[in-house]
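Hi there. Long-time user, first ticket. I'm pasting a complex I've been working with (about 759 residues overall). I'd like to know whether the download I got is complete or cut off, because the file seemed smaller than I expected. Thanks.
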Amino acid sequence: MQKKYLLGVVMAFLLVPFMCFEAGVAYGADKPFTFGVLLVGPYNDHGYSQAQYEGAEYAQKAAAGTKMIYIDKVNPADRPGVTIPQLVDDMVEKGAKLIFAGSDDMKDGIREAAAQHPDIHFVHVSGDDVLTGKATKNMVNVFGRMEYGKMMAGFAAAMTTKTGKIGYLGPLVNEETRRLASSCYLGARYAWENVLKKDPKDLTFQVTWIGFWFNIPGVTADPTQVAQNFFNNNYDVVISGIDTTEAVVVAHQKVQEGKQAWAMPYDYVGACEGGSKVCLGVPYFNWGPAFADLVKKSMAGDWKSEWVWLAPDWKDINNHDTSTVGFMEGDALSDTARAALDTFIKDLGTGKVQLFKGPINYQNGSVFLKDGEVATDKQIWYMEQLLEGMLGQSSAK
Amino acid sequence: MADYVQNGQRISAGQYTETVGDYIREGVLTLVVVLAFTTFVLFIAGAPPLDAYYHIFKGSLGSWGKFTHVIKAWIPLTLCSCGLLYTFRIGLWNIGVEGQVVMGAIFTTYALRFGIATPFPLVFLALSFAAGIAGGALWALLAGFLKTKGGVHEIFAGLGLNFVAQGTVLWLIFGPWKRPGVASMSGTEIFPTDLWLPYISSLRISPIGLACALGALILTAAMLRYTRVGLYLKAIGNNPNSAYLLGLKPNRYMLIAMICAGGFAGLAGSMQVAGVYHRLIPSISSNYGYLSLLVVMLANFNVWIAPLVAFFFACLNVGSIQLPMMLQLDSSLSGVIQGTLVLATLAVHAWRIRQKTRGARP
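Hi, the file is complete. Here it is re-exported in full:
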C-alpha cells in the first residue's frame, strides 16, 4: 500500500515537467525584442551594477519595441548553487535574444552559455575572450576606457591631498585593476609634478587590495577597515577601486571626527550622493549609449564578434547620450583644483597630455614603455605590474 | 530521542510506527501550516502569494531545461542525504557533512589538475571521483575520531571542521591554486572540457551523475536494510549501552557510519566540481550539506522519501530565482519555505504522537 502510494508520487513528479512543456513560450506578432541583463551586485548598489542597470533601462527606452529582463546579485556568494548557464537558459526561455553579462567574474560561465546557445547574442562587459580567441562567434566584449576617468580621479586626489599620501582601495589583483590603479597614479603624478611643481618622491600612492569587487564578510578584507587604516595612517584621500561606497562613508565619519579626509567612489554617476563634504568626484560608466547601440545591432541582425573599448566623448565627457566614460566633479573639490582638472580633461581630449607615454617603468624597475614610446591598447589592457613609484602588491601572493 | 509508549511497549520516537493514513494526515497538516506561514510572509512583503508559488513551480518544472537544472541540484542533495542516513541511523548528528562536501571538492580538484592536457581525461575523471570520496570520508573520519577518541561531540567537531574546510578552499583559491597572476573569488582556472563530467547534450543530463545518485540510493537502502552493518547501526543507534553489552563495538560502527556519510558527501563535492562549476569556487558546496540535513529530517529518515524531498528542495532552489526576476522579491524566500517545512513537520509529528500516546506516557 505504502509503496504504491510512493510510486504514484514518483510518477507524478516525473510527469509534471512533461505536461508543462512549452507552457512558457508565448507566440505573437508584436512580441517585443527581449534582452537579459546579469548584474553581479544589487541593482541599486550606487556602484557598478546600478550603472549597468540604468544603462540597460536607457537602452530599453532608446530602442523601441524592446523589453529588458534582469537578475541581480549574480555571484556565488549571494546565490549559492545558481550558475550563469542556468540563468542564461532561463532568460532564453523567457524569449531573450541578447544577454548582457556584467562582470569579469562571469567570464567562465558566460563563455559556456554562449557555446550552448549559438543563436543568441552575448555581450560580456569587461571581458577579453574575443581578444584571446576563446569567444564563440556570438560574443562581443565591451568596456569603457576607464583609464581616463581614473587619471582624472588621481589628478583630483593629488590636487587635494595635504599630506601627500593617497590610498587606493583595490578590489582583486588582475590586469584590469592594475591598469586602473596605475592610471590613477599617472594622473596623480602628473598633477603633482606638472601643476603643483612638487617632487614625485614626496607623493605616496599606496594600493591595498581587498580580494573582490565588494565586501564578502569572512572572505575578503573589510573595505571599511582598509579605508579606516588609510585615514588613521595619515592618508587623507582614498580613491575607491571597488564597486561599493565604503571609502566615502568612512571619509565622512573621519570628517565628523574633525579630521581632514576626502574620498572618491567609482562606477556610478550618483555615487557621491550623501557624501558632499568629502567627495572629490567620481569616475563613472554611462552604459546607456553603448548598450542601446548593441541592442539595436542585435535587433537588426548586424552582429559581429568584436572587442570594443569605448573612449569618453571628449566634446563633453558627461553627455548622457554619447559618452561611455565620465567624471562627475564632487562638491568637496576646491575651485583651484576644479579649474586645473578642467584644463587637464581638455588636454587629455586633444591628446596634448598623453600619460601612457615612456619612459615608464614597472614596479620592479623593468621597462614598460621606452622613452617616447606610446602604449598600444594591448599594452595598456594587459598591464603586467603596477608602475614604478606605486606601493602595493603587483600580483596576488 | 524521547521515549514513547506504543501498544504497551516503551519505544523511541524513531521506532514509532505509523499507518499510511497517519502519513497523509500529517503531510496535509504540515503543508497547510507551511503554506499559511509563507503566504503570511509574502503578504507582509507585499507580494502576490499565488504568483510567487506559480513562478517557483514554473521556474523549476516549467520546461525540460529547468528540469535538468533541478536534476543538477538533486544529485548532490541526494548523495548527501544518503550519507546522512547512515549517521542518523546510529544516532550521530553529522553537521560536518557540509565540510565533507567541500573536502571532496578539494580532493577532486587536486586529482583533476593532474589530468589537464593528458591523453586520458576519463581516467583522471574517474580518479578524481575516487579522490573526492576519499576526501569526504577522511574529513568525516576526523570528526569521528574526535567523537570516539577525544570525546568531542560530533556537532562541535563537525562545525569546526566545516570552518577549516571552508578556510582551506579560500586559501587554495587565493594561494597555491590561483589563476595565473589573478587571485579571484571566481575560483581556480576552469578545467578543459574533456575533464567535465560528460553529459548527453540533447538531454543535457549527465548519465554518470544520475547513475551515482540512484546507485547511492539503492546501495544505502540495501546496506541499511539487508546487511549486518545496517542492523548494527540501528541497534547501536537505539541503545548504545545495550549494544555494547551485546558485544557490539559502538565506536567502530560510528566510524563506519561517518566514513559512509563522508564518502557520499565527498562524491557530491566531486559532482559540484566536475559536473556543475568545472573549477573550484569558494562556495563550492552550494550549502547542499546543510540543506540535506533538512531533507533527511523532513523525510523522517526514510531512504525512499529522502530523494523525493530532495527533489522538492531542488525545485525550490532552482525555481526561487524567478522571484527576483519576475516579482522583484528576494529569492531567500525558498529558504524560508524549506526551514518552515522542517519545523512544521517536526512540530506536527510531535504533536500527533503526543495526541496518540496521551496518558500512556510513564
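A couple of notes from our side: Chain A has two domains: 30-144+288-310, 146-284+328-381. Chain A is about 35% helix and 15% strand.
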